[in-house]
């Protein structure tokens, strides 16, 4: 078998719809993309539905598929967030997304985000990390700004429990007691453990030095943990083990890094990979080409197009796409001729909608001995005529794995 390598570049939220502000072009059609168009001309293109026609997916689900998993392998947002901030997550762990919050003496949530706390969350988290409640160990780590992740590790736990987060926008609602969502003793135990922990955390946090200082400065204290979205980490074989490959992911966004770690990919990130328009595409391209020496599959991610789609900014989205094109040009220059360069997106984020939609996204594969089609421009309209046709995310990724020589023959 001839083994080959792939660099897969992902433009987050790339897909869009013709926009009147752009003369009824999509941002990808409107943008100047000489590198993507050249690759389309010498490669094979197509249109991809991540799961199936019309189904919108989140960045987490989209990347789960692009890393090579089936949609039903989705472990929930909590485990992905935890992996994304570098926590050790094991099968059976119950993982929650959290906010640092402010409650008053009656348990009323004064602010769901503790005055959008940014500093000192590591010290606050340290004070409650590693506490053991009823034989269950609680791991707690801060994420960005007011966000955090909580893991319950122990025997006989369940993810069938409710949230403590009332989610109401600071309207005088109290925090909620965790309730079991089914009749199992596992759900009851999990609710008991988490309720005990949250009260214990409150008693520690209300007198914490970081909070005393915040109060003296007129800021809201982070004296409570609101939990939501319980998820159970499942036993998932890393994709790298399944294919017997080495993989590397270059990204700034923790969600993408989390999925990459789950899939067994080494992760590379840097503070200059901001996830925004000022992100360091030169560094991303350099790392993508350098890491090819040690790896068989490289995923390199750019967040900016998605953010501009959410902000309903078609001109800015076109600019973000031009940045992506520039990054692709740098990568193409840096890779050997026998390496495949593939382009995809995790979903569409049309500017007129400002949210993810189920519109298919354009894809392309360029590289050695490719059955090139007649498409010469990379966009949502032209790629619909491409040689890959209309395929699912699983089909697209399997096609890449096939080019890599990593798909097992069926039959004899
Ligand atoms: Zn998005």
From TrEMBL:
Extract the signal peptide range.
none
EC code(s) of this entry: 5.4.2.12
Alphabetized InterPro entries for the sequence = Alkaline_phosphatase_core_sf (IPR017850), ApgAM_prokaryotes (IPR023665), Metalloenzyme (IPR006124), Pglycerate_mutase_ApgM (IPR004456)
Q: Which GO terms describe its molecular function?
A: metal ion binding; phosphoglycerate mutase activity
Q: Which Pfam families match?
A: Metalloenzyme, PhosphMutase
Gene3D superfamilies found in the cross-reference section? Alkaline Phosphatase, subunit A (3.40.720.10)
Question: A single GO BP annotation from the record?
Answer: glycolytic process
The question of whether Isomerase is a record keyword is answered with yes
What's this chain's function?
Catalyzes the interconversion of 2-phosphoglycerate and 3-phosphoglycerate.
- PANTHER family membership: COFACTOR-INDEPENDENT PHOSPHOGLYCERATE MUTASE, METALLOENZYME DOMAIN-CONTAINING PROTEIN
Q: Which family does it belong to?
A: Belongs to the BPG-independent phosphoglycerate mutase family. A-PGAM subfamily.
Q: What is this protein called?
A: 2,3-bisphosphoglycerate-independent phosphoglycerate mutase
Q: Which organism is it from?
A: Paenibacillus pinisoli
Lineage, opening ranks: Bacteria, Bacillati, Bacillota, Bacilli, Bacillales
